[in-house]
Predict the 3D structure of the following.
Amino acid sequence: MILKYTYYICIISTRHASYLSKDKAHHAGAFFYLHMKYSGVPKNINDLTNQLISKGLIVSNKPDAEHHIFSTGFFRFKRYSSIFHIIDGKGDYTFIKDTHFDFIEGVYHFDSSLRIALFEAIAEIEVAFKSILNFTMTLKHGAHWYLDPAVFKDKFTKDLDFNYESSYDKFIVGLTKECNETRESYIKKYKDYYTDPALPPSWLIMEILPFGTCCKLFQNISEGSTKASICTHFGVDKRIFETWLFTLSYVRNQCAHHHKIVNRIFMFPPILPNRKDHMFLKEGRIVDTDSLYAVLCIVRYTLLNLKSKSFFKENVIDLIDNNPQIQLDRLGFTEHWRKEAIWQ
């Protein structure tokens, strides 16, 4: 099978990205391209399981192992097994001595359960954030505040891209399309009754706006005092809260698409308060902010500020206690994490 895309790699330093389309690569400068043919051959479950065994994995029940790999996917299974790999100088791997199939299956189920707990917790935060954003903005700027460009920063409403569109223009175009195509009865009812404004009030719009879009709207609100008043409900200042929103939106999407969350570096790392009077973690200054532990901490702290009645803390601690094979230091947990107030 020939790869669908050919990559053109620019060899002259430009402001463009490393990977360019053919016409853009011409404008960027001299370039060359690599046309490579994929030679991988599909293998059946028996062959794939034998491959793992040949690498040193101990499989005590081969039919069960084959069933798990078949229902999970070999590539997905290998990603979970990577923490038990020893990589040689050629990039090939073998398993650490005495690595059992059950160890990897346990990591997989731990990840799955933690992903569900995170998704539910972030969903609660998302709903609360949208509600607080809506109440704050509508009471100050009216039911259709999001239609007023003056509410937002100039870079959001006036900076144009190559198609002479601002980010705000694209937001309105996308929202209009969503409202025209949605099957939600409350949106259709508004459009049936009203023509001005063409789009519904904020409290209806918040129900269909993705979390990430709401985060961008918040980021681009021009009034610092308004943003600050929203942030008081979450226990941190606006500079820090903005980073938390994008972290939570990213992690929520990873969870929704069933991506692995253990033993990975997270994009959009949150900023943690480091001033003594604002820190909520005693070991906050040594926490790796792109780790899973940092994500768990900001979720827990946010839920506390929202006076949530969820069992997120209990779920996380139970999962850790019931999975002693999980290496917490590889997830970014600090040595004395259990002594932190948020986990008490």
